[in-house]
Design goal:
Elements (H helix, E strand, L loop, with lengths): L1 H4 L7 E3 L11 E3 L26 E5 L3 E3 L4 H5 L5 E5 L11 E9 L5 H8 L10 H9 L3 E3 L5 E3 H5 L27 E3 L12 H6 L2
Parallel strand pairs: 1-2, 5-7, 8-9
Antiparallel strand pairs: 3-6, 4-9, 5-6
């Protein structure tokens, strides 16, 4: 998806315990040995010397679907720490950071990792990584324009279109109208990307 939708020069890095089947041009990095798991590894990406200093880092979760050119995600307010506002913004006014898509300059915000590395038990004080990252950087984070990155199930489709039983799925297959400014569709919770048969997802995912 990145190869199709990014024309700027870039390096693609994947942090994983299982590099099986990845393209040879992908740089593979191991996650640190720690008591952390799942999304709690995300603060590690702010480690001061993890990437070349002053590089621009754009982080994306695996469960996003890129549908249009993403150059603007690098070019928008280039010196700032920018992310997606949590898609709960669609039904509450005080939504903070969603860590599905984040961009920052290497070497900045390293205290985000340092504090957690020195006291991993503080993770128990937060519902998830994005609440911790927000708490550590709330005076520095700004957001991309809302239309650029949308929650597929809450902002493109609608919560009323989901089944009540778990795991939740859409009750129908359809091709919703999406704003031409939108470049990334974010999936969170259920349904997972592979559970959706809408053509915009099938045609663009991976």
């Amino acid at each position: 998806m990145v190869k199709r939708h990014l024309t700027l020069q870039y390096n693609f890095i994947c942090f994983t315990e299982d590099p099986t089947g990845l393209l040879p041009e992908i740089q593979i990095r191991e996650l640190p040995s720690s008591n952390l798991s799942g999304w709690w590894y995300k603060p590690y990406f702010f480690k001061e010397d993890l990437f070349p200093k002053n590089d621009t880092n754009l982080f994306m979760d695996l469960d996003v679907v890129i549908i249009n050119n993403i150059n603007k995600l690098f070019e928008y307010n280039p010196s700032e720490f920018i992310g997606m506002q949590d898609p709960s913004r669609s039904f509450r006014t005080n939504a903070n950071l969603n860590s599905s898509v984040m961009r920052w300059i290497s070497g900045n915000h390293s205290d985000t990792w340092n504090k957690l590395e020195n006291n991993q038990s503080i993770s128990r004080n937060y519902k998830g990584d994005q609440d911790y990252i927000w708490d550590m950087n709330k005076n520095k984070i700004t957001y991309y324009p809302k239309k650029w990155i949308l929650s597929y199930k809450w902002e493109v489709r609608n919560r009323s279109e989901l089944t009540n039983e778990r795991p939740r799925r859409f009750t129908s297959v359809r091709n919703p109208e999406i704003d031409p400014e939108t470049c990334i569709l974010v999936f969170h919770g259920h349904p997972k990307v592979h559970m959706v048969s809408d053509s915009v997802i099938v045609e663009n995912w991976v």
